[in-house]
Design a protein that fits this description.
There is one protein chain. By secondary structure, this protein is α/β, with parallel strands linked by helices. It is built from 12 helices and 8 strands. The protein has helices at 6-10, 17-25, 36-54, 111-121, 140-154, 156-159, 174-186, 208-212, 226-229, 238-248, 283-295, 320-336; strands at 61-69, 75-83, 93-97, 124-127, 167-172, 197-201, 271-279, 300-309. α4 crosses α12. The longest helix has 19 residues, at 36-54.
Length: 355
């Protein structure tokens, strides 16, 4: 379906029936955004419990940590998943960025997908560490993410990967923004091989100033209203978005924040898989970005989930929609790698990707 009119886009916010029934019986507890660090610590405990419940990695997957030193001496621990028996053609490299509004989360959040992508596609998967706000404001996360990505690419061989077999970068929410901006940045050079695929899930890539500066065609103004329409959505609402942005303090005029500010945006981007949730304040960021990429000759794949809130699969694992989304993600990894698409039902969901 095409989402190019105000009417078709607006209809996406109609709550999914299964979700509405679930929330009626199980109201989500309120969250206090007045203390981001306290909220982060609470989410960290939830993440640890979810990972403990998962158990160890599949038998064919080696899970490890690699600690590297960033530009200012910070020790950053990356999580790595390697296949015990790499493909004869070589193991592709997949680099992942977690979500959490630039304030919450950790690389461990990507464990389910890291394990699944490694097991299904024989890929070496690296979840990259970046520092969080409010202690570290923009552009620290972007610079950390670029440094971690560069390290993974430059050390692909020692990690067991072959960049000629594929080089995919992806992330959810805040990680989706990092992916979009850094894959765009990579087109200017700096990596030992070109990125061949991008997974950009529920990203934030626009603000009103992007339109005012003429970085987005005015024809998209009529379909950029999700921040208002979904300001009271479950999981991620206006209060949450405002709190995260106040803590992170992004510079929307910087190409490290949004690909729309790059010198030559969009043209030359690798094939890109974009996910959008209908009841998400960030919905229209993803819809518009996918259209702009396509208009610039980029091969895209778009999955839209009507009536679902931001990264719902990370928070509501029992819903049928979560199974569909996680299958979509693992299949799309095959599409990005230009190989047979495979799925691992209910194993690729994040341990908490939202924000």
């Amino acid at each position: 379906m095409s989402y190019t009119t105000h009417e078709t886009v607006s209809a996406l916010a109609t709550p999914d029936p299964e979700l509405a029934e679930f929330l009626k019986a199980n109201p989500l507890p309120p969250r206090d955004f007045s203390d981001i660090v306290k909220l982060r610590n609470a989410r960290s405990e939830q993440e640890k419990a979810a990972l403990a419940a998962m158990g160890g990695p599949p038998s064919g997957v080696i899970e490890s940590e690699e600690t590297i030193t960033y530009r200012d001496g910070y020790s950053a621990t990356q999580l790595v998943w390697r296949p015990k028996s790499p493909p004869a053609s070589g193991a592709p490299l997949i680099a992942l960025f977690h979500g959490g509004g630039f304030c919450l989360g950790s690389p461990a959040q990507m464990t389910p997908l890291g394990r699944a992508a490694c097991a299904l596609y024989g890929a070496v998967v690296v979840a990259i560490k970046y520092r969080l706000a409010p202690e570290f404001k923009f552009p620290t996360a972007s610079e950390d993410a670029w440094e971690g990505l560069t390290w993974a690419a430059e050390n692909a061989s020692s990690l067991g990967a072959d960049l000629k077999s594929g080089f995919v970068v992806g992330g959810v929410s805040a990680g989706g923004q990092l992916t979009a901006a850094l894959v765009q940045k990579s087109l200017e050079g700096g990596l030992p091989a070109p990125i061949t695929g991008a997974w950009i899930s529920v990203p934030v890539v626009l603000d009103q100033g992007t339109f005012e500066r003429g970085k987005v065609d005015a024809k998209y103004k009529d379909v950029y209203f999700s921040h208002g329409q979904n300001q009271e959505a479950p999981i991620l609402d206006k209060v949450a978005v405002d709190a995260f942005m106040a803590a992170y303090q992004p510079n929307w005029s910087s190409p490290m924040c949004t690909p729309f500010e790059a010198k030559n945006p969009h043209k030359g981007m690798p094939r890109s898989y974009i996910q959008v949730c209908g009841m998400d304040p960030l919905r229209d960021d993803g819809l518009i970005y996918e259209r702009v990429l396509k208009e610039n000759g980029v091969e895209t794949r778009l999955d839209v989930y009507p009536g679902l809130p931001h990264a719902s699969w990370a928070f509501l694992p029992t819903l049928k929609s979560t199974k569909k989304v996680t299958e979509d993600i693992t299949k799309a990894m095959g599409w990005l790698l230009k190989t047979e698409e495979r799925s691992a039902p209910a194993t690729a969901q994040s341990a908490g990707a939202g924000g």
